[in-house]
């Protein structure tokens, strides 16, 4: 089943590009972007991940902006799924753009990943 996009692709790419340019100059610049820009970038990248790795076995949470389910495998139907990844928006966007590696983010404790399928290293960055 195809992922239903809520963020227009060009709008999402623009927000992500704006965030990446600001983050390249400094974390403070990226944090100073309007909330709507950061939210659009996060939601767009979550939709992109779900499109590239369709499935329901892993839940990726980036509070307060969004969540997606991805990666083929066993589907959960109730409660907390067995494979959950959670991180903050800046870390997620760093991973999505390649400014931060999966191994570094996990090693620094910036990503909480539980479950045998909770590894996005082969899917990130979202080039």
UniProtKB/TrEMBL annotation:
Domain Bacterial SCP orthologue: 35-126
Family matches, as Gene3D superfamilies: 3.30.1050.40
Name of the molecule in the record: Bacterial SCP orthologue domain-containing protein
Organism the protein comes from: Micrococcus terreus
């Amino acid at each position: 089943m195809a992922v239903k996009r809520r963020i227009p692709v060009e709008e999402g790419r623009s927000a992500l590009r704006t965030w990446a340019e600001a983050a390249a100059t400094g974390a403070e610049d990226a944090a100073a972007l309007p909330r709507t820009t950061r939210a659009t970038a996060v939601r767009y990248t979550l939709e992109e991940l779900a499109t590239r790795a369709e499935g329901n076995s892993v839940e990726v949470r980036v509070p307060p902006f969004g969540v997606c389910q991805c990666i083929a495998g066993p589907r959960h139907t109730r409660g907390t799924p067995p494979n959950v990844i959670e991180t903050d928006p800046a870390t997620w966007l760093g991973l999505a753009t390649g400014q931060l590696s999966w191994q570094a983010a996990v090693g620094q404790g910036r990503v909480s990943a539980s479950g045998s399928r909770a590894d996005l290293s082969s899917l990130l960055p979202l080039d």
